[in-house]
């Protein structure tokens, strides 16, 4: 099972909103996550981030995504009028359950969307178990007769 993030993230977000008054500001790294067959797919929106500014790390069962949105190159003498796009380093952590295979995660970055595919571990997939039965003493006597 894929777990979203640590429980204190929402508390930090709420605290930031209360202190800065930014109630409608979206999360800087929104994501979607869903299961498709034998894998989980996680998609992060990272518009304006170059491929070399993204890093993925897995340590134990924690997947960390870091991305840096750098300021656009502005010509000398240009005066910025509005700057609402968040800049800097953004980080998001996902806690991976034991049923996921963290060694086989794949990542693809296309059109500002980072897509991760996390396969379900083979040991977690449903499987049939054969049942053997022991014969009782009377059944054994009837077979010997």
UniProtKB/TrEMBL annotation:
Q: Which InterPro entries match?
A: A-crystallin/Hsp20_dom, HSP20-like_chaperone, Small_HSP
> CDD domains attached here?
ACD_sHsps-like
Entries under Gene3D superfamilies matching the protein: 2.60.40.790
PROSITE patterns associated with the record? SHSP
What the entry lists under SUPFAM superfamilies is as follows: HSP20-like chaperones (SSF49764)
Q: Which domain of life is it from?
A: Bacteria
What Pfam families does the entry give?
HSP20 (PF00011)
Task: Spell out the family assignment given in the record's similarity comment.
Answer: Belongs to the small heat shock protein (HSP20) family.
Q: Which PANTHER family match?
A: HEAT-SHOCK PROTEIN 20 FAMILY MEMBER
Q: What is this protein called?
A: Hsp20/alpha crystallin family protein
Native species: Kribbella albertanoniae
């Amino acid at each position: 099972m894929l777990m979203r993030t640590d429980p204190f993230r929402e508390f930090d977000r709420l605290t930031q909103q209360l202190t800065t008054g930014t109630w409608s500001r979206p999360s800087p790294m929104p994501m979607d996550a869903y299961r498709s067959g034998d894998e989980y797919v996680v998609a992060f929106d990272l518009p304006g981030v170059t491929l070399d500014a993204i890093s993925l790390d897995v340590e134990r069962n924690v997947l960390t995504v870091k991305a840096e949105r750098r300021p656009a190159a502005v010509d000398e003498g240009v005066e910025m009028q509005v700057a609402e796009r968040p800049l800097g380093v953004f980080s998001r952590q996902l806690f991976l359950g034991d049923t996921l295979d963290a060694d086989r995660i794949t990542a693809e970055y296309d059109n500002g969307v980072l897509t991760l595919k996390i396969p379900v571990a083979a040991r977690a997939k449903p499987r049939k178990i054969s049942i053997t039965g022991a014969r009782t003493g009377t059944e054994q006597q009837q077979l010997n007769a």
